[in-house]
Amino acid sequence: MKNLILFNKPFNVLSQFTDDQGRSTLADFITEDGFYAAGRLDYDSEGLLLLTNNGQLQHKIAHPKHKMPKTYWVQVEGEITEEQLVRLRTGVELKDGMTKPAKAERIDEPTNLWPRNPPIRERANIPTSWVALTISEGRNRQVRRMTAHVGCPTLRLIRYSIGPWNIDKLANGTHTFLEVNVPAPSNSKPQARKSNRKIPSNRSKNSTSRNKKPRKFNS
């Protein structure tokens, strides 16, 4: 049974099915009942969003304790340097604390990239560059804050992968179904372990003899 949806979310789409402000939501793209987003992806970000109808799978994907790595393609303002990449890798100090070590590599613009609508705002005579950034945290707008901290503001943010799943062969605005094996929860309580330790027979005899009172004799 299909229990996971891989959705390549477009720009300016909410990671939820309803909105009271008339913005585009998941309901404009996904009509299957019972599926909900496992985690979130910002309104102004693009790329992979996972949805599931299985509570255990949702917990495995979204809960921070599982530390499922997420890789982002990030277009930043300026020519990012190796020194800036090293700072991203080792961690930067944000308002909510130090970020954990990450993977950060400069890449060419992805060849399979779709045009964004609307396009990014580029400043004249200021180049841009692309970074592949992999993190295992999920702080609010973390990637944007990290690149801004090292002096390269994010212009476009695309989530390429979450754990083993990615947007390869998945056009923007489309989704596909997968079946993921989730072990059934065990309801049985663990039984107390029985001790295999045996009391030596001589120990019980000695114990009995120690408890005996000495006999008295009349002289």
Automatic annotation (TrEMBL):
Keywords: Isomerase. GO terms for cellular component: cytosol. One of its GO terms (biological process) is enzyme-directed rRNA pseudouridine synthesis. GO terms for molecular function: RNA binding; rRNA pseudouridine synthase activity. Residues 210-219 have a biased composition (Basic residues). Its EC number is 5.4.99.-. It is an enzyme of class 5 (isomerase). InterPro entries: PsdUridine_s_RsuA/RluB/E/F_cat, PsdUridine_synth_cat_dom_sf, PsdUridine_synth_RsuA/RluA, PsdUridine_synth_RsuA/RluB/E/F, PsdUridine_synth_RsuA/RluB_CS, RsuA_PseudoU_synthase, TruA/RsuA/RluB/E/F_N. Transmembrane segments: none annotated. It comes from the Bacteria. It holds the Pfam family PseudoU_synth_2. Residues 3-149 form the Pseudouridine synthase RsuA/RluA-like domain. Residues 182-219 are annotated as: Disordered. Belongs to the pseudouridine synthase RsuA family. NCBIfam families: pseudouridine synthase (TIGR00093). This is Pseudouridine synthase.
